[in-house]
From TrEMBL:
Domain of life, per lineage: Bacteria
The entry's keywords: Antibiotic resistance, ATP-binding, Nucleotide-binding, Transport
Family: Belongs to the ABC transporter superfamily.
PANTHER family, A to Z: ABC TRANSPORTER ATP-BINDING PROTEIN, ABC TRANSPORTER ATP-BINDING PROTEIN NATA
Any single GO CC term annotated in Swiss-Prot or TrEMBL for this entry: plasma membrane
Organism of derivation: Actinocrispum wychmicini
Coiled-coil residue spans: none
Name by which UniProt lists this protein: Lipooligosaccharide transport system ATP-binding protein
Lineage: Bacteria, Bacillati, Actinomycetota, Actinomycetes, Pseudonocardiales
PROSITE patterns: ABC_TRANSPORTER_1, ABC_TRANSPORTER_2
Main localisation: membrane
Stored Gene3D superfamilies: P-loop containing nucleotide triphosphate hydrolases
TM region(s), chain numbering: none
Compartments in which it is found: Cell membrane
């Protein structure tokens, strides 16, 4: 409660209140600098909180950091595998840091290689592996100690769609087995696929919290109508569209109408003489919620 992290005079996390339930997948969304990574580092017991209360697996990180870390699995944003070791050795050597026996680790490594679909590459060195394979190995390595809580920082960044969907399947299986997942991601479809609940952070604070469906219902509409016009012909259009949607957003390259019925809004626009170059009716997504709460301005 009231979790805070300061770096000098800068407050990176400003009084965050949240509760992650055992066995759920919980997501952190937010632009760069929103406080996601600082919050994750406090949960992972690698950065001390500046204020407030924090309980991880029923323990206080300031007192029980080593005990908590022994029950955590961590998947960093950038793979930090040992390229000079084989795939199997990366699992076995990492497991020794937890005091696990060589006999146990031989069996555990085989189990995790099968889970990550890397059995046929077990004795290959890491360097030649594809990005998806390395990511699967990093996730497999994080499970060597049978963690109760798995922290995943941008788990599928840079991966192709096939690799992303395979990782989603593996993470879903872990959740089914009772592992609690905490995920940060910039992929809105990933958050919708993986997360039971999530928070949108902005400026170190929580802007919204709920399930993906709840957030879409609360901050957007059932559908979005996108209208595109030739360059220079969009400026006189917005006044003609007033009243056709719950909310209208005028962008440099298109006009968005947030509405219950996109086709009906499109027909109404045509009846008012509006003839777009192209139109698209789509369902509202978590990205619409994210952009409404955090803005469209690029944050560096």
């Amino acid at each position: 409660m009231g979790l805070t992290k300061r770096f000098g005079d800068f407050e990176a996390v400003g009084g965050v209140d949240l509760d992650v339930r055992r066995g759920e997948a919980f997501g952190f969304l937010g632009p760069n600098g929103a406080g996601k990574s600082s919050t994750m580092r406090m949960i992972g017991c690698v950065s001390a909180r500046s204020g407030g209360e924090l309980s991880v697996l029923g323990m206080d990180p300031n007192v029980d950091g080593p005990k908590i870390r022994a029950r955590l699995g961590v998947v960093p944003q950038t793979d930090n595998l040992d390229n000079e070791l084989t795939v199997r050795q990366n699992l076995q050597v990492y497991g020794r840091f937890f005091g696990l026996s060589r006999t146990y680790l031989r069996a555990k490594a085989a189990e995790l290689l099968e889970f990550a679909q890397l059995t046929e590459r077990a004795d290959d060195e890491v360097e030649p592996l594809s990005g998806g394979m390395k990511r699967r190995l990093t996730i497999a390595r994080s499970l060597v100690n049978d963690p109760d809580l798995l922290l995943l920082d941008e788990p599928t960044t840079g991966l192709d769609p096939q690799a992303r969907h395979l990782l989603w399947d593996r993470l879903f299986r872990l959740k089914q087995e009772g592992v609690t997942l905490i995920v940060t991601t910039h992929y809105m479809d990933e958050a919708e696929q993986l997360c039971d609940r999530l928070v949108v952070m902005d400026g170190g604070k929580i802007a919204a919290e709920g399930s993906p469906g709840e957030l879409i219902d609360r901050y957007s509409t059932k559908e979005v109508l996108e209208l595109r016009f030739p360059p220079g012909e969009q400026d006189p259009i917005p006044p003609l569209l007033h009243g056709l949607a719950d909310r209208m957003e005028v962008l440099p390259d298109r006009i968005l109408l947030y509405t219950v019925d996109g086709e009906a809004s499109l027909a109404a626009a045509h009846s008012r003489g509006v003839q777009p170059l192209a139109s698209l009716v789509r369902r509202s997504t978590l990205e619409d919620v994210f952009l409404r709460l955090t803005g469209r301005t690029l944050v560096d």
